[in-house]
Design a protein that fits this description.
The structure is a homodimer of 363-residue chains. Chain A is an alpha/beta fold. Chain A contains 13 helices and 12 strands. In chain A, strand 8, helix 12 and strand 9 form a beta-alpha-beta unit.
Chain lengths: 363, 363
DNA sequence: ATGTTAGCAGAAAGCGCTTTCTGAAAGCGG
DNA sequence: CCGCTTTCAGAAAGCGCTTTCTGCTAACAT
């Protein structure tokens, strides 16, 4: 037996020798030794995975508390091939839309003693894939992708290449508000139906001239909302000329710019639909800058019902989504047992909320 | 040698045997075998921790890519006693104040290839401590506590009891916007100075009758802002009667309720200062409900400059804090090398931003 | 008394990596 | 041509846990 083969005991003692610099880490071994039991028993006592005589159990628990023992999650994960973390990937937590969904996720996670790893992609596709990979490395129980997917074949394929082995290895994946090109559990708002219902409500107010401030066309959410809105207008025989669909980034400033662009094209329509509330916020500012009153000159509506739109003047008409609940649903869906073969889709109803930003058109 | 002692090789082979159910996990061993090298070499090649002959290096990398190898972060963390995760604890990500700070953290983390575990306490002290404990178990490189601390001896002590062993074991801790009762790195807004500057600006507008919508008195942020505001008034010989300080929860609705309470007490002051923008939002709504025009009847100011207050009508006068940068600073501060003995405090300047919600008092 | 069975605790084998440590081969000066 | 240092790859120990597996003891039936 060569010199370097030293039994664990010896190492343990060496550590315990008084050196002020590195404090001796408290491991299960330490606890077990202090309680006068084997590590196996200590583990069982601490986790309640098997019956342990009451007396020993008490000694272990006391020793653990005494020593301030904190189990090493990595060792646990490694040994038991399971852990209690989930990953959430979104574009930016400071966007109220994601923040609300994320909050729902965190709430659900807290109830289940899960730790959430949250990653922001800042709308960088490469970063999204990198994060999936990192979460795979962490052996996260589930990965949640939140936010509109882009219709980009190459990207979808790359993402799928990351996700497929993960699910095959037992990982759970759910997407929120993202079209289901990925064959995973999906929480999908009724974007089409919601936008259509909004269109009908606006038609009912008397509007016949519309414009849509749309996000990037490759975002599936945009496409769905636009399609729903347009089809409801079409059903009423109201045209939506191509020039009345203005694209902008999916941000406050994107909505602002799009609205300005619309106004530059000539006399405004009587009603503007911004496909997200965040864009609507920018649009409202732009309309005002151009001296237009809402809703007297132009009615404005959004989609999502993020909390802040209620505080605007006038409060924004929008299509409400239960954002908090969506986050909650996503994690529940992903972690449900038993794991079903087919992926499930949970459709989230969207409800039109008429507020003061829309009114009858002035003629 | 008993039957159960089987060398790794054998297990490996057994696994590879074709069973459709559990796909054989790709480990470093697999990769090494495929590349015809030892696991040690594969590890070195993959991580670049030591020189490896170019040819072998290529074979390893190729094999890893081919097999879709993803290292097990838990095993890595366990073996190397280090990992790339940081923990962030805040009250609620859906609060724009925290969301903005968190976003700054995520940005910095992304640049450093760190994974962020984000936990929301929902203002539950017990939960906060539980999360610290969980993050300790995860051996997070750093723990960031974001948000106003409560002056509660018992709680502080409990938190400190969790944090002290953590830092002693090499963990980094930083707090943001939280008083430094904890002896850790701190990112601290100039709450006092900011509130004082705001008070002076409001005095300069001609106001002499003020009210403050304050959050819970035990929040240090509240205490500081209130103190700063009050001292500036005192310096100008302007009184701030106790009755004009109304407490409310640190939320939109808290601000709303506090404002209503204030108005119920009699004729309103000419100027109201809400200690946070979130509360100001609620206050604005309340003032309006009571038929008061802002700023014509009452001027209103907040603190923080969260993005949404710019969208209000009228846009809110406030004291701006570089929220994004604060998040960034916190993580930078915590992870800076070398670890200095003394904890550092980074003071964040607060700047008064006058917007349309404040004006000269009408007499 | 003997043979079972059940209940519990300990030994030890790993989980999938990193990192010594060891040794072989190659490079060097004298 | 020999002893020396360097370089680089493999063996193996070990990170801190969980989880068989084994075996002891006590409890029960026969």
């Amino acid at each position: 037996m060569s010199e370097r083969v030293r039994p664990r005991q010896e190492r343990q003692e060496r550590r315990t020798a008084h050196r002020t610099e590195p404090p001796p880490p408290v491991t299960l071994h330490t606890v077990a030794a202090a309680a006068g039991v084997s590590p196996a028993t200590a583990s069982r006592a601490l986790n309640g995975t098997a019956r342990v005589r009451e007396e020993l159990r008490g000694r272990v628990l006391a020793a653990a508390a005494e020593l301030g023992y904190i189990p090493n999650a990595h060792a646990q994960a490694l040994a038991s091939a399971s852990n209690n973390t989930v990953g959430v990937i979104c574009h930016d937590v400071s966007d109220p839309y994601f923040a609300a969904i994320a909050s729902g996720v965190m709430r659900a996670a807290a109830d289940q003693e899960l730790l959430v790893m949250l990653a922001s992609t800042f709308r960088d596709q490469g970063r999204e894939i990198a994060y999936v990979s990192m979460l795979r490395a962490q052996r996260a129980r589930a990965i949640l992708l939140i936010g509109s997917g882009i219709e980009d074949r190459g990207w979808e394929r790359a993402l799928d290449a990351e996700l497929a082995p993960y699910t095959r290895a037992g990982g759970r994946v759910a997407v929120v508000s993202r079209h289901r090109s990925l064959r995973v559990d999906t929480v999908l708002p009724e974007n089409r139906a919601g936008a259509a219902a909004l269109a009908r409500a606006l038609l009912a107010l008397g509007h016949r001239e519309f414009a849509v401030l749309a996000g990037p066309p490759e975002l599936t959410t945009v496409a769905d909302r636009l399609a729903g809105f347009r089809s409801a207008l079409a059903a009423a025989g109201v045209p939506l000329p191509a020039g009345r669909i203005v694209r902008g980034a999916f941000t406050r400033d994107g909505g602002h710019a799009a609205a300005l662009e619309l106004l530059a094209q000539g006399p405004p329509p009587t009603c503007v639909f911004a496909v997200t509330d965040v864009m609507a916020v920018g649009a409202l500012a732009a309309l005002r800058e151009r001296g237009l009153r809402v809703p007297d000159d132009v009615s404005l509506a959004g989609f999502d019902d993020i909390p802040l739109v209620r505080e605007l003047t006038p409060p924004l008409t929008t299509v409400a989504l239960p954002l908090h609940r969506m986050g909650h649903s996503a994690i529940t869906l992903a972690l449900r047992e038993p794991r079903t073969a087919r992926s499930r889709v949970e459709r989230i109803p969207a409800e039109v909320v008429l507020r003061a930003s829309t009114g009858r058109p002035h003629n």
